[in-house]
């Protein structure tokens, strides 16, 4: 290992950041071709799912969580005119449709129910029993339908040598062979709601000084998504809003993005390497947003050697406490279902770094 001052990290790691960008871009290029082929076929099999378009630039449907771990949102169609549910009701069904003597638990944090009647317009297929129970569109049933469609698409598109299903998971995961390395890809049916902002996301907070009110309105105009990634409840997602926030980070000439990129590189090389890291880029992004909100002034982000340790200290605090609030939905802990032993190991490595900054030899 090589001991460095924080100022030296810029020179030592930014070259690695550029190399990572090139490698990730190539992997994204290959993965999005696979996603486009699969979802085009899936859409022809079932009208409820849209094809993910191919993009020469940034693809809003593909999220890089780690170099070997991607997420692709697959938009559903036939659901338009979303409105928040106004009446609370108990649910007494199992995924098999049998009755329960006691009601199911209510959704918490980033979760919510989704009733077909919450949409002003809906295809009749969303009322069918293969995805609907008692008027609810049930994510586990949607995933069951979707998994079979993915399996069929892999065979039909002759991708069996490049793409394989990953078993023993509640959601739909595939392994994709890229020219650099295998990528594990989660394919998630997604209800896109671009016309509204979730009532659960009580943002911005009172007296918040970052981002500006004008930017807040722009970000909220992108709406939110609902992901089919659990059994009964849909998961709120704000990928598009978060991406806009990231893109506009340094309009004042600050070094926020540079701090984030260096922290991500250290996370992948030293603190939390591996194909299935306990800390993802989304966690780091959330730490960055909270730090930007706490330090909203231009002067706070002018000097890398001061701004970067502050960001790492925030990461260490969150990881060591096993607590990281979602940026938009404050009552949701992003580490709630994370292995605490793995978090403690990361916290120890970050603590060691703060005492004596080190990186792996190039």
From TrEMBL:
Residues 58-248 form the Mab-21-like nucleotidyltransferase domain. Signal peptide: none annotated. The gene is MAB21L3. Residues 255-351 form the Mab-21-like HhH/H2TH-like domain. It comes from the Eukaryota. Belongs to the mab-21 family. SMART domains: Mab-21 (SM01265). Pfam families: Mab-21, Mab-21_C. This is Mab-21 like 3.
